[in-house]
Amino acid sequence: MRKWMRFACALLAALWLAPNAAGAEIVPADEPDMHIERTITIEGKEVAVDAGVYGTNVKEVQAYSLAGLNLGSRPEEKIDLSVFLGDAEVEERRTQWTPEEVSFDLTDGSSFDIVHDYVILRRKTLERINNSTSWLYLPREKRFLTDYAEHVQPDELPDFSLEEAVLRLEPMLSQLGITAMNRPTAAAYVTLEELNAAVKAHLDEGVSPEDVVIEDYTRDDEYYEFVLPYLYHGLVVMPTSENLPYTNQFETPFAHVEAVVSRRCVEKLIISFVPGKEKASGKAFEPITVEEALAACEKIESTREYPWYDGYENPRIGEIRLGYAFLSKDRAITEVNARPAWLIYIFCDFKNEDGSVDTTWQTIAIDAQTGEMLLRW
Fold it and tell me: Which pTM was predicted?
């Protein structure tokens, strides 16, 4: 009961938490409010809907004009760098194109960049597990982690759970005011056996003089790589980057938390868009229903000679969420229109030349106020 109450309280707190407020955290995964099962037609293509729906109980939402986080020219005075850097000391502090683009090089070879609206932490030991050329010999699904997988693998490393790895990020996210959801949209792990097998395959094929081959891996090098969605005003932000054709907007940011966490430490943390100052746009409003959002999908008309899904099979929708779509105002994606929207992920299969089948996806975002299609499939 205590554990359930702790999770419930954490989620309730997240729903009221302003962006970049102290005490942001990692909250547990939510449960769908309802389930929809049917078939809809989009641009003449039948799409199977067998989806959990999230957000039907939200009565009011608000749009915002939102800038990326800017900690100024002295970010070390606004956040606790030791949370990110540990015991390592700063060897060099560098500024890049502007005084607000600050990089810290550490004595142990690690680096930490705070550049306008994004942060990047790379530990020196990341080279052992992610930069060695033997990485290319890992299984394909371990090398190319998608930012939104249809099904996240539940398997875990012995004595080191995915949840434990995720929770190691909490102090860092708290410094940045980010509330993330412990519901990876993509995840993979790599074992010592897989690392050693990759090295052997590399050595068997032959090593070029410029190749880096590490042969002394230990259990400490076993790691998870995962992507977490984060919340904005209590609603999940669309985590994937999408182009915005036929609008005066530009592409959306990768608004998610990307991390590599080994048994040893947080090896990598990348957050490409950290919410900063905001201003309400218009008045708060009651969102349209999920039924109205699906009906809006069926009204989509193709303006392209060759729709993107040509050659793709089995289009399907497995999840629908009321959330935020960050629609960029400039090519640098430093300022966005944060629009409440129904986020609908469509997955499709396609065949490769060798006959194998892969999966791809596209996002439809339906404006929760007007029913307008913000992002097309």
Answer: 0.87
